[in-house]
Design brief:
This protein has 281 residues and is α/β, with parallel strands linked by helices. It is 38% helix and 20% strand. Helix 8 runs antiparallel to helix 9. The radius of gyration is 19 Å and the shape is globular. The protein binds adenosine monophosphate. The site of adenosine monophosphate (AMP) has 16 residues, from helix 2 and strand 5.
């Protein structure tokens, strides 16, 4: 495995892989890798002759008030995990490599960005879409792997690929959870033991939603109430949003007659966590 820091080194490795007739799989990440990320890598490894992982804490997707400075950076351990998982190239650029002096070009995806995360983090998806397009241009992957954990992000990236005719396929990967149900996240390491326990209200509320749905409940509002009831019972939890929306448009819906998604953003102390559940009638 190669650990590289420049775009030209990636291009060199990609040219070699293409000359050898290999398909390219890309897993974009911000590092502090856990089993969720590694599951994306394993999927990429199965499907492709060449697997690239990018590790870049992308400053343009953080607001000035957010956790950019304290976001965990564990490059050595990350590289070791990638090596064990059979990655070919890890690309860990610095901010200067991705955003050199004078950089001023942005991807604004419409439709699925203004609501939910977009409302709480107004510049977030512009940063995400821009860095992902840049990474797609650097790696020119056949397949790029994204977790369903960041459900709205997945919608944004799929829309960008569709609307801009990008020549790659987005492969969604299911949420990987701790044995207690907490969705794995690099931010989980901010949680104290007490907060970790409190954070279980997210997955528990989704389990409640699932149970209601499976017993025949089809009212989005009723399922939303079930979810909020569980979250409200946890004193350490503060809800940013907890909604049931159309799984494709992310717009509110009344009756779940087509795929819907329960989307949660909840603050546990100073840590903001997201989770979700797809409901398919
Ligand atoms: P991040 O490093 O948080 O930007 O995440 C990089 C990629 O890993 C994104 O596509 C995430 O959706 C995905 N990911 C993060 N956590 C999980 C998880 N628990 N299960 C599945 N995918 C995940």
């Amino acid at each position: 495995m190669k650990l590289v820091h420049t775009i030209s080194e990636v291009r060199e490795a990609i040219a070699e892989a293409c000359a050898a007739g290999k398909t390219i799989g890309l897993v974009p990440t911000m590092g502090a890798l856990h089993e969720g990320h590694i599951t994306l890598v394993r999927n990429a490894r199965q499907d492709n002759g060449f697997v690239g992982v990018s590790i870049f804490v992308n400053p343009t997707q953080f607001a000035p008030t957010e956790d950019l400075a304290k976001y965990p950076r564990t490059l050595e351990e990350d590289a070791e995990k990638c090596r064990e998982a059979g990655v070919d190239v890890v690309f860990a650029p610095n901010a200067q490599e991705m955003y050199p002096e004078g950089f001023d070009c942005w991807v604004d995806v419409g439709g699925v960005t203004p609501m939910l995360e977009g409302q709480f983090r107004p510049t977030h998806f512009r940063g995400v879409a821009t860095v992902c397009l840049k990474l797609f241009n650097v790696f020119q992957p056949d397949l790029a792997y994204f977790g369903r954990k960041d459900y709205q992000q997945l919608c944004v990236i799929r829309k960008m690929v569709r609307d801009l005719n990008l020549p790659l396929e987005i492969v969604p990967v299911d949420i990987v959870r701790e044995s207690d149900g907490l969705a794995m996240s690099s931010r989980n390491r901010y949680l104290s033991a007490e907060e970790h326990k409190a954070a279980l209200c997210l997955s528990q509320s989704l389990n409640d939603a699932k149970a209601a749905f499976e017993s025949g409940e089809r009212s989005a509002m009723t399922i939303q109430h079930v979810v909020k009831h569980r979250l409200d019972a946890e004193p350490l939890a503060a809800i940013d949003y907890a909604v049931v929306v159309d799984a494709e448009t992310l717009l509110p819906l009344e009756t779940i007659a087509r795929p819907a998604v329960v989307l949660l953003a909840v603050r546990i102390g100073a840590t903001r966590l997201i989770d979700n559940l797809i409901l398919t009638p």
